[in-house]
């Protein structure tokens, strides 16, 4: 019966960038499949069954929804980045140019080339990039509310705004059974290295090794954070004495009252346990 795929387009992504190139992307994908269905969303409850591949044209939020479907069904996922952050694409080495990414998806479909990558599992949901709580989650929440500026600068503005109010607090982490009581400013659990439109918060995270890389920024003053944050673009923050790293297959975070987000999506706060599910997602390419 040939290859049946769906293309989920989130038209508002990237200030309309996805909508502008959707026709071109669909035309290129049709060269690699026998049947292509066009969808307006990648929400799991809106997707048809029996797909041989789901391709998402959009940003990290769109991809996050698609991951929920693909992890549950085993359907291979194709990613064509067209958003503000595109952090999963960046972490998996997928071209950030959407037309180049579309061509790579077509090649993978022709060659039936798939790879398995890890996911984080959290209270019945999946995440593919970074789970974070504390200062960085507060920054993410503020950045999501901003309408200007666009791109990575939005996060820079949000950082400056949050510096005035945020304070470190005691956090309890349990990593593979080991208990840590820490004064912390933020905790980031990385399946892949990037969040916040290219910040390498967990620079050594490998989505195919079965482990999370965990970055903890301990008690930090505003001056400390101003020194640490610029280094996130290149992973140089690990040199700061307030920063420590851990590795684990499972992590429990107790930080009551702190904001929490995964893949840039805000979640209810409280006590959470995340587990690394090895090879839970199949990606095209």
UniProtKB/TrEMBL annotation:
<dbReference type="Pfam" id="PF19279">
    <property type="entry name" value="YegS_C"/>
</dbReference>
<keyword id="KW-0808">Transferase</keyword>
<keyword id="KW-0418">Kinase</keyword>
<protein>
    <submittedName>
        <fullName>Sphingosine kinase/diacylglycerol kinase</fullName>
    </submittedName>
</protein>
<dbReference type="InterPro" id="IPR017438">
    <property type="entry name" value="ATP-NAD_kinase_N"/>
</dbReference>
<dbReference type="GO" id="GO:0005524">
    <property type="term" value="F:ATP binding"/>
</dbReference>
<dbReference type="InterPro" id="IPR050187">
    <property type="entry name" value="Lipid_Phosphate_FormReg"/>
</dbReference>
<keyword id="KW-0547">Nucleotide-binding</keyword>
<keyword id="KW-0444">Lipid biosynthesis</keyword>
<dbReference type="InterPro" id="IPR001206">
    <property type="entry name" value="Diacylglycerol_kinase_cat_dom"/>
</dbReference>
<keyword id="KW-0594">Phospholipid biosynthesis</keyword>
<dbReference type="Pfam" id="PF00781">
    <property type="entry name" value="DAGK_cat"/>
</dbReference>
<dbReference type="GO" id="GO:0004143">
    <property type="term" value="F:ATP-dependent diacylglycerol kinase activity"/>
</dbReference>
<keyword id="KW-0443">Lipid metabolism</keyword>
<dbReference type="InterPro" id="IPR016064">
    <property type="entry name" value="NAD/diacylglycerol_kinase_sf"/>
</dbReference>
<keyword id="KW-0067">ATP-binding</keyword>
<keyword id="KW-1208">Phospholipid metabolism</keyword>
<dbReference type="GO" id="GO:0005886">
    <property type="term" value="C:plasma membrane"/>
</dbReference>
<dbReference type="GO" id="GO:0008654">
    <property type="term" value="P:phospholipid biosynthetic process"/>
</dbReference>
<comment type="similarity">
    <text>Belongs to the diacylglycerol/lipid kinase family.</text>
</comment>
<feature type="domain" description="DAGKc">
    <location>
        <begin position="1"/>
        <end position="126"/>
    </location>
</feature>
<dbReference type="InterPro" id="IPR045540">
    <property type="entry name" value="YegS/DAGK_C"/>
</dbReference>
């Amino acid at each position: 019966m040939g290859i049946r795929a769906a293309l989920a387009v989130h038209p508002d992504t990237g200030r309309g960038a996805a909508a502008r190139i959707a026709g071109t992307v669909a035309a290129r994908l049709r060269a690699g499949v026998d049947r292509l269905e066009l969808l307006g969303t990648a929400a799991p409850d809106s997707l048809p069954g029996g797909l041989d591949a789901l391709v998402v044209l959009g940003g990290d939020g769109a991809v996050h929804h698609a991951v929920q479907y693909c992890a549950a069904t085993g359907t291979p996922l194709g990613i064509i980045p067209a958003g503000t952050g595109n952090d999963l694409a960046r972490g998996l080495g997928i071209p950030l140019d959407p037309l180049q990414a579309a061509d790579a998806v077509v090649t993978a479909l022709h060659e039936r080339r798939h790879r398995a990558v890890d996911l984080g599992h959290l209270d019945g949901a999946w995440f593919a990039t970074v789970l974070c709580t504390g200062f960085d989650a507060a920054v993410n929440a503020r950045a999501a509310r901003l309408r200007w500026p666009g791109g990575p600068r939005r996060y820079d503005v949000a950082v400056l705004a949050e510096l005035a109010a945020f304070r470190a607090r005691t956090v309890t982490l349990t990593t593979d059974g080991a208990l840590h009581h820490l004064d912390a400013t933020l905790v980031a659990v990385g399946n892949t290295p990037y969040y916040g439109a290219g910040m390498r918060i967990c620079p050594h995270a490998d989505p195919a090794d079965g482990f999370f890389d965990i970055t903890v920024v301990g008690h930090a003053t505003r001056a400390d954070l101003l020194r640490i944050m610029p280094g996130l673009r290149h992973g140089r923050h690990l040199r700061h004495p307030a920063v420590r790293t851990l590795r684990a297959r499972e992590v429990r975070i107790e930080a009551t009252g702190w904001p929490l987000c995964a893949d840039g999506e805000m979640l209810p706060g409280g006590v959470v346990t995340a587990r690394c599910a090895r090879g839970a997602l199949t990606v095209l390419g």
